[in-house]
Amino acid sequence: MAKVDTEIQNIVLSVTYKDIEFDLEKLASVLEGARYDPEVFPGIAYKSETPRASFLIFASGKMNCVGAKSMKDAEQAIKKLTDKLRSSGVDIKEEPKVKVQNMVASFDFNREFDLEKIAREFRNTEYEPEVFPGLVFRLDEPEVVVLLFVSGKGVCAGAKSMKDVKRAAKKITKTIE
Fold first, then answer.
1. Which residues form the sequence repeats (predicted)?
2. Which of 45, 67, 95 is the last residue before a domain boundary?
């Protein structure tokens, strides 16, 4: 079986602080570069530079974290932000609950694909080259969507872990060989 090059492009996580309500006005003034305009959006938009990640922070004590390229980076960005929140006076007793909502990865299968042939042979695909140049391949296990391109490149979306990404690459390779 040919080797598939895989690279995480983005991880989306939900972050929940138990029994916490954020004072968004106060946080927006404490977090450097934070954007808060309650007329436009009910949360704070905040970017962390190292490691790179973006956050949407809500009064409910929930946040979304996007843009990290590894779980290690995401966890580090969340920890740094949690420390900043604590030092600004937010009484955070326990570490937040973090859950991966989506992982997006790029694939290089190191070969070209005949997308029309794949579309004819597999029922869980969609291919309309006039609308979009990629073939949409829906997998059940893991439950992800993989976009395949003639060039042999692909994009995997909907994964919840690196294990899902690797299983998807393996399954696609096995299925179409």
1. 100-176
2. 95
| DSSP result, 54-108 | EEEEETTSEEEEEEESSHHHHHHHHHHHHHHHHHTT----SPPEEEEEEEEEEEE
pLDDT in tens, 88-143: 999 999 999 999 999 999 999 999 999 999 999 999 999 999 999 999 999 999 99
DSSP lists the bridge partners of residue 145 as: 138, 157
Give the integer Cα–Cα distance in Å for 79 and 159.
23
Angstrom distance (rounded) from CA 165 to CA 105: 7
CATH number at residue 129: 3.30.310.10
**What's the pLDDT at 177?**
79
Q: What is the enclosing helix (H) or strand (E) of 163?
A: helix 162-176
- Whether cis (ω within 30° of 0) applies to the bond prior to 133 is no
Residues constituting the chain:
177
Which range marks the domain in which residue 49 is found?
Answer: 18-95
pTM assigned to the model: 0.89
User: Could you tell me if residue 52 is inside a domain?
Assistant: yes
